[in-house]
Structure formats: structure tokens, C-alpha cells
Specification:
heterotrimer, A mainly alpha (about 300), B mainly alpha (about 350), C alpha/beta (about 260), A: about 300 residues, mainly alpha, 12 helices, B: about 350 residues, two-stranded antiparallel ribbon, about 75% helix
Chain lengths: ~300, ~350, ~260
Amino acid sequence: MELAFFIEVLAGGLLAGVMYSLVALGFVLIYKASGVFNFAQGAMVFFAALTFVSLVERGWNFWLALVVTLAVMVVLGLAIEKVVLRPLVNQAPITLFMATIGLTFVLEGLSQLVWGSQPHGLELGVPDVPIEWLSQKANINISQFDLFASAVAGTLVAVLALFFQKTRIGRALRAVADDHQAALAVGIPLKQIWGIVWAVAGFVALVAGLMWGVRNGIQYALTFVALKALPVLILGGFESIAGAIIGGLIIGASEKLAEVYLGPYVGGGIEGWFAYVIALVFLLFRPQGLFGEKIIERV
Amino acid sequence: MLYREAGQFKTSYAADQQIFPILQDRIGVIAVLVLAFVVVPLVADQYWLGAILTPFLIFSLAALGLNILTGYAGQLSLGTAAFMAVGAFMAYNFQLRIPGMPIIGSFILGGLCAAAVGIVFGLPSLRIKGFYLAVATLACQFFVLWALQRFGWFSNYSSSGVITAQKMVILGYELDSPQAKYLLTLFVVAGLALLAKNLVRSETGRAFMAVRDMDVAAGVIGIPLMQTKLLAFAISSFYCGVAGALFAFCYLGTVEPEAFNLDLSFRVLFMIIIGGVGSILGSFLGAGFITLFPIFLSVVSQTISHATGMEISHAIVSNLELIIFGALIIFFLIVEPHGLARLWQIGKEKLRLWPFPH
Amino acid sequence: MQSQRKIGAPVLVVEGVSLSFGGVKALQDVSFDVRKHEVRAIIGPNGAGKSSMLNVINGVYHPQQGRITFKGETRSDMNSHEAAAMGIARTFQNIALFKGMTVLDNIMTGRNLKMRTNFLQQAIWIGPAKREELEHRRKVEEVIDFLEIQHVRKTPVGRLPYGLQKRVELARALAAEPEVLLLDEPMAGMNMEEKQDMCRFILDVNDQYGTTIALIEHDMGVVMDISDRVVVLDYGRKIADGTPDEVRGDQKVIDAYLGVAH
């Protein structure tokens, strides 16, 4: 009985963690390729999900809506790169970070201005019910949808990892992330690369938005999902795709376990900040995360 | 030709060191102070005092606090609202539980509690920087709010953590009119602003800026990094704590932990970005802008509504507000990263030359 | 033109210092001394470990082996704060100035160890803080006069040309009234005129204030002209130690610079 419950909580946590990882992936992509910490990722997730669901509710065909939303995200990404990032190209990272905070607000306002602010539900064909044979045989409740989301995330990660490691464009992206000037010096077309990166990040945002949308509904609170991705990134390192996944799993699992097993002692509700405390502890002992690169400052 | 320094020579370092070395500046500042302390309370109506000027002053103080930490000492913080909350709730508790406690004393003690919290959550700054530190301050923001709601002691066991600020009595006078609250706030804010101005121009201020610009070098020339960073957190949190106490006592009257949420932290950050990081004046300009802008927008939208007969819903206005804020942040970061304060300075420089072009 | 100062006993002694970063051996068993009032040059091809040596002396890096004796006190792990407090000041290869502050403020930070008032006194300003600030301002203005940078004292440092920035960095180090001044390539990137000015300043500092100077420098002409003694490093090891003339004729030194295979 105890063990079954523990496995249920753990599995639930891991699967929640997968959702975090999806959002964190978007961050990693942009950071890896442009060195920018895109705080607006959460707003992008929200915007993508809202656009898709609004089109579907207006009667559009599922796949058509998907493609059109993807196109919109790509255009959005290119616009962001042109209007916000390019003018700030040589500024300190902190300036770029603050610009993405501004971007967050623009996207939030825009999303709601265009599509309205009522919450929307979303169905993707996989129901959010426990898997039959698991709950009957072992008394463990794991949602079918959660499993589906993990499969999607897994596929996405595999594709992205291959993309970065094996293709020419992926190599160019890594070069750009390392040193803009050097990349320019060897002839890598910076602007195109950034355009591609933001487009891919937009796609990841759409996927994340859809998964989260089914789980929690598409509403304004979705933008705060980005905040949860921050501890994930700190654990996993800002530049590692593998780190985003593993970090997400760890954060998701620890959060749920802490809430269930530690929560009662302090009155509950610790899910809100527990992830941050874990991140904080990590920062103190291993600032580069599990997979990030150590930064050495030389004078 | 009005704004000339010609003929104003400084013959001592003391004279050079003044806050307002140019005579015209001094006259201007005195005029503003007279306006603020004397004219406004006599002339302004309840709405202006209670809903615009008092919150403007309070937010200026919070922005000042954040500017000390982020603008001068370079430690990015997203936990401003949490420090304000500590100040508000602890001031309330000191007033409540210590009989005969003077209200200013409660404010100061509330600020000191906020400073203590600031030091604790500033400890990570000794090892981490930049937006990693911002994440650590987020931990502070979420944790403090949770603690204030979870532990009933803070709100005297009221439901949902709401507190109602007590009446303020100074030297036998009860301060419950908008004028009185405005004057108290003005007095506190002006005083703390002066102290802050002195501080940032002194060795402590230089130490802060050295840590901001290149902390490795600062350490090498002898500036104690740990003390400097923690002092920045402490002073900044004190200012934010006092601002929080004023927020509860002189503005809203009734507050709950949720009023000090992440949204408020971002708001104050926007104030210093737009107003000018690393500038005392900028804190005021930014706070003024962010306080007045929503009002300006709603006036504009109402005018358009009346003029064209179209209904512009409140939702549209508030979404427009978000968009314009965000766009302004980006705009300022691109065009003038030093914000309105720098624009003000440029304006003064042009005024020096007027009517000549250069 | 050597300085006329009378050179005294060793004030700084480096013994058997070895420093590695991971697998890279930056310094191997380096020993030399610096005598009071002298101008000591540290030279060597790129990557020889010269900057690392300076960083070890003032506590930025901690050597795995060896010790430093300064003013009679022997330490194997000085930290930079203590080094500064004991009277060692330095400049950096890549100008470590505080770009957001004015020249005057940058130089004033050099006085930070001598300032005693606390932040509360400074916030109030009137009284001890004001007196202290003005007293140190006077001292700093002396340094500004000495290095002829009065005309830029209120300019933000980030806006100054490279040569002036280097001078401001020197001013900041001088403001601390150090006993030993470590200069890391003070003339890098300067033209002939600027170099002559800098040489003049360095010699004046040595003459007027009696400051002991250890400098890293690539320009051989400068080294020969202004130093009393020279240490030569190559691949982290000391290969020569003596007067400029002795070192110039040393075959090992010539080989190191010409890149003869080891």
C-alpha cells in the first residue's frame, strides 16, 4: 500500500517534471544559440497555445491550425530577433534578460488583446485517465495523458539532440552560442541562424503549450510556467538539453515528494517555493548545474 | 542663458562636493520642496493625494531601495515585494504587540526586520551573480509570501492573512486625513532619499559601484566583497521594508500577503529600468511614470470613447497597458539604457547651451 | 637612466612557487627577490607565467607549493585583501577599472582601506564622514596632479582613450600609497610618446615616493632603460636573474625569445 502510493507520487512527479522540461527546452535552445536568457519563453508558450486553441474553436481543422500556429510562431520569432535582439546585440547579458522581461509583457498583453482572456480547455485525443491495467493490477494510478506527454517530450528531445550534434546547422548554432564574433569571422550567417533558433524555440513552445493546455487549461497562469522552468535550468545547466530533461525530472519528483511527505509538517503549500530552494542549494555548491560549463573569471 | 554655470567657481573641495553645485539647480530643488511640502497639501484634493501622490512617493521609496541594490551594487533582485511585505507585516506586529510604540518606531523596526531578511537571502550573492542571483531572490519572494500566509502569528490569526493597519498617532495628533498621510509619507521619503543620496556619493556608494562594475578587481584593491554585498542587501531591504510599511499604513490601510506578489516586484524593477538604474532621481522619475501612466491611458481611452462613441473595454485598456509597458522597457533598453534620468541630464545639458545649438 | 634611490634589503621574497591550473603548469619552482626601492622587471615570452606570478604575489592565485615573504611575514596563501592591506597595489593587463564611475571616483576607491567611517556616518554626511572624504580627496588630487589627469577627473572612465585609462589605473594604485607596486604591462598598446610619459611617471613614483616597483613589460628598450634588475621566465621557470646587461647577454634568454627547441 505504502509502496504503491510512493510510486504513484513519484511517477506523478516525474511526469510533471517532463512538462517542466518541455518549457526548459525552449530556454536552452535560445540560450545555446544566442546566449540570451529568454524570460519570455513562458509568454511564448501561452501565446502559441492560445492561438492554436482559438483557431480550433473557430472551427479550423486540427492539423491546419497546428501548421498555421507554427507559422505564426516562426514569424514571431523572426520579429523578436529583428526588433529586440539585434539592436541589443553587444549589450551585457543582463540587459538582454531585462529586454525579454519586457517582451513577456508585450506578448501577454498581445495574446489577450487578440484572443480574449477567457480560459480554454483543450483535447488532444488522449484522455487524462489512469492506465487501466496498472491501476487494476498494482493499484497505481498513472494518467494515460502523462505518458503520452512524456513520449512526445522524449521524441522532441531526441530530435533536437540529433539536430544539434549531427547537422551542420546545429554545429553553426553551437558556434554562435560560444562566440558571436568568431562565428561571424568564419562566415556563419548570424541573423539566419538566430531566425532558425527562435523558430525552433517557437515550435517547442507550441508543443509545451499544448501539453500544458490539456493538463491545466489554457489561461493566463500558463505564463508562470516559465518561472518553474528556472530551477530546472539551474539544476541542469543552461546549455544542456540533457540537463533540461534530467533537471525537470528531479525538480518535478522532489516537488511532489516534498509536498506529500514533508508538506504536512509545515502546513502544506510548499510546492510553490520548494523547487527554488533546491535550485538555491545547487547554486551554492555547483553553480554551473549538473551539466553546464564552469565559468572561470580571469583578471 | 538662464541655466549657466559661468561665474560659479568652486574654490574648495567641499563646494565641489555639494549635491547641487549649480545655483539654478538649488533654486529649482527648493521650489520643488516648497511645492511638495506646503503647496500640495493645501491645494490638492483627496483623490490626488490618496490615489496618486502618496502611492507615487511610496513606490519611489521602493524603487530607491531596489536601485541601491540593483542599480548601484549590481545585484539583480526580483524579491522587492517580499521585503515590502516583511516591512508592512512586522510594522503592524510591533504596533500591535508593544503598547505605546510610536508609529515611526514601528516603521523603523519593520524596516530592520526586512533588512535582516534581506541579509539572509542576500547570502547567495556571495557565490552567484547575474540572473542566477535573480532566481535566488525569487526563492525569497515565494517563500516569504508563503510564510506570511501560513503562519497566522503575522496577521494576528485573521483569515487569509489580512491585516488592517492601526491608527497612527504622532505627538497626540491622529493622522487619518489624506493630507496627514501624504505629509508623513513625504517626510519619510524625502529624509530617506537624502540619506541615500549622501550614501551613494560616499565611500560606501563607490564600493557598491565597484562591486557592480568588476567585483574581482574590487576585491583585489581591498574592498571587502562580502560585507559590501550584504550591506547593499540590508540597506535596500530596509528601504523596501519602510516602503511596505507606508504602503499598508498610509495608502491601502488593509493589506494581505498577495498584495506583495511577484507582479509588484516586476513593477518596481520596471520603475528603475525606465527611470534609470543607478540614479536617485531616476527612482522618482520611474515611479512617477509607472504610477501616472495607467491613469493617463484610461483618460485617453475614455476621451476616445466619448469622442467616437465606441466602448473601449477595461480589458482592452489593461492589455494595452501591458503591451506599452513591455514595449517601453525594450525601447529604453535599446535607446537609452540609463532611462529617464539620463534624458533629464541631456535636457539640462542642452538647456545650459540654450539658445545656442552647441 | 637608473633611478638614484638607494636600494635596500629584499622586501619581497618569492621561494619555490609552483602553480598549476588543472594540468597546465603555469609556474614551476620560481624563486627570486625584490629589494626595497628598486625597479624589478619580469620579462619572458608570451605564456611564460608572468601575470600568474604577479597574481600569486598579491594573493589572487594561491600556489600549490612555495611561499611569499613580504615585510618579514612569510605566507603560503595570502589573500588579495590582506595583500592590499599590507601595502601591495597593482595594475592589470586588461585594465580593471570601474567603467561606470568617473576618474575621480575610481581613484578614490584606491583609498578605501584608509577610510574609517561607517555607512551610517556617510549617510548623514555632516561631520566625520565629510571631513574624511575631503581629506582623502586632497590626497587623491595630489595623485591626479602628479599624473597630469586633472582635465578628465569628472569623465566616466569608460569614455577615455586607452592610454589615459592606463594612467587612471596607475593613479588608483598610487592612491593607496603602496610600498610595493605591481604593474602588469603598463605600456601595452601605447605609442612612443605615451610610453615615454609612462616611463617618466614610473621613475618619478620610484624617486619621489620610494615605492618598490615590480613590472611586467615586453618592450626591451623600456626594460633596459628603467629597471635595476630583471627576472626572466620561460614556460613557468626562471631562466635568468640579474642586471639588464647581464640578462641581455645570457644565451638562455636569447634562445627563449628566439624560440629555440627545448
